[in-house]
Amino acid sequence: MLKTNISDGWSSDEPRSLMMLALDVVESLYGLKARDQAEVSLFALEQEVAEQLQNQQKEQLQEPPTAQQLLSALYGSLGVAGDWERFFSTDNCLMNRVLSRRRGIPVTLGILVLYLCERFDMRAEGICFPGHFLLRIKAPEGDVVIDPFTGRPLSRNEIEQLLRGARGNLARLKPNHLKAAESLDILTRLLNVTKASFIHHKKFSQALACSQLLLKLKPDCPFERRDRGFLFEQLDCDRLAADDFEFFIEHCPEDPVADVLKAQIVALDLGPKTLH
Which member of 54, 84, 123, 268 has the greatest number of CB atoms within 10 A? Predict the structure, then answer.
């Protein structure tokens, strides 16, 4: 069941760590025990990273560790990696499972790297790039764009290839594509990916919980109301589905989907339920 007190805190003025927001999602879906287990896994990984960086400092005469050293340790001996084989699995979207398996997708691994960079006084920021979440590591010698799925830096040509893969061969890289993302924008991306994974696996109750969280972030978004309506319909909550469809039609009357939803409402069973 959705813990509304968690998501209510997202709208407060007090800044929250992106990792803590991602763990809020876990707690909302699976309860406090799942969150506690995730925090244990996170602490263990953080300690292993600290040990690796300390060893490298000793070898290099106490030079402060760099983000590249952190990435080398994380994606090397510590076993963090992108999950090529089960890319669309919900295990790659839920931070508790990502931390225990040390496998994930770009946005979840990106959140992990951002957290560790912050913990070890390194400057990094997330980029909500089309189709593939990226990171920017900021260093005195110059900024570097990192693919969090592999942990390696990307050339401009490779970034352009990612863009064309997401937007088509005519797409051209613009500065706006690489702008730094706010924490709530990254959280929104995480929730959308998680919701899509649950839908892919026909776990509609969990997908609905993600939709409810997204509506905490954007209460009046007609497209999220439309999507929630489809989930209500899958769960046989026809009256609630109709309410969301009607909201979308009212706010987006020119959208081609509006006419489809009008027919959908007619087909829904909106009569009173018979009690036996």
Answer: 268
